[in-house]
Amino acid sequence: HDRPYKSFSDVIEGKEGRSRENLLGKRVDYSGRSVIVVGPSLPLHQCGLPREIAIELFQAFVIRGLIRRHFAPNLRAAKSLIRDKEPIVWEVLKGVMQGHPVPLNRAPTLH
Questions:
Q1: CA distances from 52 to 2, 20, 22, 32, 62 (A)
Q2: CA distance 62 to 94
Q3: Which pLDDT score is estimated for 78?
Q4: Helices (H), 2-106
Q5: Percent of the chain scored above 70 by pLDDT?
Q6: Taking CA 100 as the corner, what is the angle to CA 96 and CA 103, rounded to the nearest 5 degrees?
Q7: CB 36 within 8 A of CB 47
Q8: How far is residue 64 CA from its own chain's centroid?
Q9: 75 pLDDT above the threshold of 80
Q10: Domain limits of the chain?
Q11: What is the pTM of this model?
Q12: What is the mean pLDDT of residues 52-57?
């Protein structure tokens, strides 16, 4: 084979190194990133969450709620209700979110 050998330090260092690829760049399930903006109608201790992000984060719980409350007979039907943005989906989502607080993190900005 014509590929040069890589030393251990080559494997773990640099932009394509293992430490950067696996430790710093891992995706995390049930998480999201967005921009925080002013919500004049919200109390100081609350943060609004757009419906589209909320439904993505809580989709598994909403599906379970739709099936348990007999709004959908199965997974496919529940996903169809979500995709079609049926009003019952937002009702179930609201109930789900009451029992699942959303932790927020704002990294300090560097100026």
A1: 49, 31, 29, 11, 13
A2: 9
A3: 98
A4: 8-12, 18, 51-57, 59-68, 75-83, 87-98
A5: 75
A6: 140
A7: yes
A8: 17
A9: yes
A10: 44-101
A11: 0.68
A12: 91
Top-confidence residue, 56 or 2: 56
Rounded to an integer, what distance in angstroms lies between the CA atom of residue 6 and that of residue 46?
Answer: 51
**pLDDT of 18:** 54
Q: Torsions phi, psi of 86, nearest 5?
A: -65, 145
Joined tokens for residue 57: 């984060």
Q: Please report the DSSP string for 85-99 in residue order.
A: T-HHHHHHHHHHHHT
Q: At what angle do helices 87-98 and 59-68 cross, to 10 degrees?
A: 110
* 35 to 8, 38, 47, 107: CA distances (angstroms): 39, 10, 11, 12
CATH tag for 44-101 (out of 3.40.30.10, 3.40.50.9100, 3.40.50.2300, 2.40.40.20): 2.40.40.20
Q: Residue range 51-60: average pLDDT?
A: 92
